[in-house]
Amino acid sequence: MNFLASLGSLTLGSRLKRLSDTLFNEVNIIYEKTGLTIQAGYFPIFYLLYKEGAVSVSDCASATGVSHPAVSKMARKMIEEGWIEKKPSPKDERTQLLTLSDQAKHALPKLIPIWDEIKRSLDSMLADTEPDNLLNQLLNLEQLNEKKPLSQRVLNNLADPYLSGDIKIINWDPQYATSFKELNKEWLDYYFLNLQEEWDKESLDNPGGYYLSRGGTIFFGLCGGAPVGTCALARVTDDLYEISKVGVTPAAQSRGIGRRLVVAALNEARRLGATQVFLESNRKLVNAQKLYRKLGFCEVPHPNGKSKYRRSDIYMTVTL
User: Fold this and answer.
1) In the chain, where do the E strands start and end?
2) I need a labelling partner for 198 at 20 to 30 A (CA). Which of 19, 147, 185, 263 fits?
3) DSSP code at position 255
4) What local confidence, expressed as pLDDT, does residue 140 receive?
5) In whole angstroms, what is the distance from residue 249 CA to residue 252 CA?
6) Domains and CATH numbers, the chain
7) Are the beta carbons of 4 and 14 closer than 8 angstroms?
8) What residues have CB less than 8 Å from 198, skipping those under 6 apart?
9) What's the pLDDT at 162?
């Protein structure tokens, strides 16, 4: 523990100032690495004008909680650098309004995803700190930033938001019920022009009743806390289980998420006492076929002669 941290609440102001300076510096690094010349300290005014359009200095000071002189000083710098402009109010020409310049508006498409990723990264860091204790949260946040700076987190995720290290496989969580349906509908639309069948509607509208209440489960692949993939395990008999609804959002494919989901389902089936697992697929899903075969699945004739799914033309099983 460093000296300031060892003094506890006595140095709270100094530590907050230090953390603020650190975060501003991290954001400036992000801007520099992404080719932007804007300063991190401009964000409150910039974002307010982006959302509100045109705002007076007084209203800007009130909205941001910054003093009128401080807003005026920062506004002058932003005007000098070409980020904002002043124009008279249409209601009272004596009142000057601050607005974003064309330069700022042209930068917005690049800035908005950066801001979104900064928020996601900070939220993730805060989630790893100790709750209900401000001093410990500060210490945890400082340590997390030392271990992996905010700028590195954001730049890595901007380059590739689906890094394998950020992926977690979890068992069923009701908060993701809607995501289960949305991800599968996305998959159906992407590969089969949204060909939904009777069985799809039943399982997607009521996953708890279709899978969980019958002894099965559903797995999710999470990236930064957001679901990007799913896989369902359905109980047929005590010895036989089915894997279905394996889907990963297109932007997150080729990251091994599908494999990890299927492996999780196989491990769960084994834990539940299954001796065999089957799945039904389509031959045009070449990458999926390769994955299933690598995991030990073999093509066999369909036990019922043909599948109940119109889109399925291959039946595969694996013995556990």
Assistant:
1) 54-56, 84-88, 96-100, 167-170, 217-223, 226-235, 240-248, 276-281, 298-299, 314-319
2) 263
3) S
4) 82
5) 6
6) 3-159 (1.10.10.10), 165-319 (3.40.630.30)
7) yes
8) none
9) 54
Alpha carbon 317 to its chain's center: 34
Integer Rg of the chain from CA: 27
What pTM value is reported for the model? Answer: 0.50
Burial of 236 (0-12, 13-18, 19+ CB in 10 A): middle
Rounded CA-CA distance 108/33 in Å is: 16
Query: Residue 122 pLDDT > 80, yes or no?
Result: yes
Q: State the pLDDT at residue 164.
A: 42
Token code pair at residue 60: 């800007």
Q: What is the pLDDT of residues 41-73, one digit of tens each?
A: 999 999 999 999 899 999 999 998 889 999 999
CA within 13 Å, CB half, 147 = 8
From residue 1, how far is each of 143, 266, 303 by CA, in Å?
A: 10, 44, 65
10 Å Cβ neighbour count for 172? Answer: 18
* Cβ neighbourhood burial of 137 (10 Å; 0-12, 13-18, 19+): middle
Q: Quick check: 261 and 246 in contact, CB under 8 A?
A: yes
What does the pLDDT look like over 70-103, one tens digit per residue? 999 999 999 999 999 999 988 887 888 999 999 9
Per the listing, tokens 């069948």 go with 197
